[in-house]
Design goal:
242 residues, mainly alpha, 81% helix, globular
């Protein structure tokens, strides 16, 4: 009995760990862009804060667009679907910024513009990790092959989307260092990231009905990746000049 219990616990722990691997991989990949590594305890704080923000996003989305939410929209109308996706994008992009705003920004280690992108993407991948756990863990327990397929799809899709969209917000947060209208810059970053987020969700919805729908998804993520890469390089050069 004890051996069976240990096996069940071990299997569930393995499934849970699997849901965290894709975000952690992307996190390690992007941390290589930082020439002055951030303290591990602050990165962990941002990651955990991002996980907490995922829970906050779920509550906010239920309050605003849930079955008995503040907004009542006919989901059969494509215009209303896009509005729903835009609201989801705005909520998620904003709540991913909150851990950085309240936990990281005032730390003395937050001392370079590029830190805005690093910490925002770390929080985003914490967000993605909890989202994976809630979404994929039940699938892995029911059918490991289906769960692995969804894990792979999210690794190349939703997880990457969260990192890239928050990277864009992080760039605007970094630019706010050099501009007196700080909050306007961050708000603009959230709006742009939310619009891209909504476009991604819309393409997911219609990709089966639209010719080469998957290609459009890949192109959107590629454009976002290029934007984030260019933003990283611009901030690196700014750091070097400083």
């Amino acid at each position: 009995m004890a051996a069976m219990t240990a096996a069940v616990i071990g299997t569930n722990a393995g499934y849970l760990l699997l849901t965290f691997l894709p975000p952690v991989f992307w996190l390690l990949f992007y941390l290589r862009e930082d020439r002055h590594p951030e303290p591990k305890h602050l990165l962990l704080l941002a990651f955990i804060g991002g996980m907490a923000s995922a829970g906050l996003a779920i509550v906010a989305e239920l309050v605003v667009i849930g079955k008995d939410g503040l907004l009542t929209l006919d989901e059969r109308l494509i215009g209303n679907v896009i509005i729903v996706f835009l609201i989801i994008g705005l909520i998620e992009e904003y709540v991913k910024y909150l851990p950085i705003k309240f936990l990281i920004e005032r730390k003395r280690e937050f001392d370079e513009p590029i830190d805005g992108m690093i910490y925002m993407m770390t929080a985003a991948l914490g967000f993605a990790a909890l989202e994976n756990a809630l979404f994929i863990f039940p699938l892995l327990r029911d059918n490991i092959f289906v769960g692995l397929e969804v894990t792979a799809n999210r690794f190349l899709g939703a997880n990457l989307l969260h990192a890239l969209s928050s990277g864009i917000v992080g760039f605007f947060l970094a630019r706010a260092w050099f501009h007196p209208h700080r909050h306007h810059f961050v708000a603009l970053g959230v709006i742009i990231a939310a619009a891209l987020h909504a476009a991604f969700n819309s393409l997911i919805l219609i990709r089966e009905a639209v010719a080469q729908g998957t290609l459009y998804l890949v192109l959107l993520l590629a454009i976002m990746a290029i934007m984030v890469f260019i933003d990283f390089e611009r901030l690196k050069k700014r750091n070097e000049k400083a």
